Amino acid sequence: MRLLLLFFLLWLTFMACDSPAAPQTDLRGRFPVAVPKSIVPPPPLDYDSSAWVELQRRDPSIILDIRYATDRNFMEQQIYDCGRCFYRPEVAEALLAAQRDLARRGVGLKMYDCYRPGPYQQRLWDVLPDARYVARPSRGSAHSRGAAADLTLVDLSTGVELDMGTPYDFFGEEAYTTTTDLPDTVLANRQLLQETLLAHGFSTIRTEWWHFNYGGPRYPLSDWVWPCP
């Protein structure tokens, strides 16, 4: 009996090996395959990164609206060849930290003006040689030192500017940081902007709610002009 059982098991093994291979199931196409997205590398550096930081390269959520690169400014003409936003490294780090703090509230920065090269300061002066509104090129501006910011706040989900009571470059008491005869919403928005920037080493000025100077080292005036793509 044992011999018969052994013979039967050997016969089954022989038949399994001799039988044609079972067709393999091709599962390709039955399930969605994740295709990796193409990663677009940032453009190559075209500036000295030890001396300057391009703000949007570090944080693309910061919105640029560089007004002097357009004719949408109080001079109604284009001054900058193109709009980019550069800062001295320490100043850039302070602005990036401010952006991170604001993002927790669902708001962020929108830049109207950043570093302003000396030749562009001269262009401003050539159009409006009035020291009440434009710094003399020989004296320079904190903008030309890479240490001043003209900016506002936006809703990060929509990109819409928060109401600050006046437009950028509005010349009148409504734009003063000391003016309190304004709607509560405007006062709250201005307070958020000022408190955040002050907490990160900036100071404000009385006549322009949008203007802030960094309180760190006094950087030299610079004539470096960023290249246009």
Describe the fold and architecture.
With 229 residues, this protein is α+β, with helices and mostly antiparallel strands. It has a domain of 140 residues: Muramoyl-pentapeptide Carboxypeptidase, domain 2 (2-Layer Sandwich), CATH 3.30.1380.10. The chain contains 5 helices and 7 strands, in the order αβαββαβαβαββ. The longest helix has 17 residues. It starts with a helix and ends in a 15-residue tail after the last strand.
Could you name the key traits of this structure?
229 residues, alpha+beta, Muramoyl-pentapeptide Carboxypeptidase, domain 2, 5-stranded mixed beta sheet, 12% strand, disordered N terminus
* Beta-strand residue percentage: 5-15%
- What's the CATH class label of the domain at 75-214? Alpha Beta
The biggest sheet amounts to: 5 strands, mixed
* CATH architectural type of the domain at 75-214: 2-Layer Sandwich
Q: Classify the fold: give the CATH topology of the domain at 75-214.
A: Muramoyl-pentapeptide Carboxypeptidase, domain 2
How large is the radius of gyration? 31 Å
Query: How many helices?
Result: 5
Helix content: 25-40%
Count of β-strands: 7
Question: Secondary-structure blueprint of this entry?
Answer:
Elements (H helix, E strand, L loop, with lengths): L1 H17 L34 E2 H4 L4 E2 L21 E2 L1 H15 L3 E7 L4 H10 L20 E8 L28 H16 L2 E3 L6 E4 L15
Parallel strand pairs: 2-4
Antiparallel strand pairs: 1-3, 4-5, 5-7, 6-7
Provide a quick synopsis of the model:
Helices cover 27% and strands 12% of the residues. It is of the alpha+beta class and 229 residues long.
